[in-house]
Amino acid sequence: MLYTRILWATLGAILATAAWLMTTGNRAPAVSGSHYQTLSSTVATSPAVDCIDLSPSSSGEPCVPGPVLLPGMKVNRQVGPVMFVLQIDGNEARVNAQVSLGNAGMTGLSMTAAAPTADFDLANGAGQRVWGSLGAFFCAPPNTSHLLADFTIENLRDSGTPVTQAYRGDLIRWQSPTTSVLARYRQPLLPDLQVIVELLDPYKADSSNALTAQVSFYYASDLIDSYTLMATATPVSLRQSSVGPVRIEGGLLDFRPATQEQQGQLSLDGTFQSGHNPPNHYVGSVADWSWIRGRADNCRG
Question: Which neighbouring-strand residues pair with 56?
Answer without folding.
Answer: 167
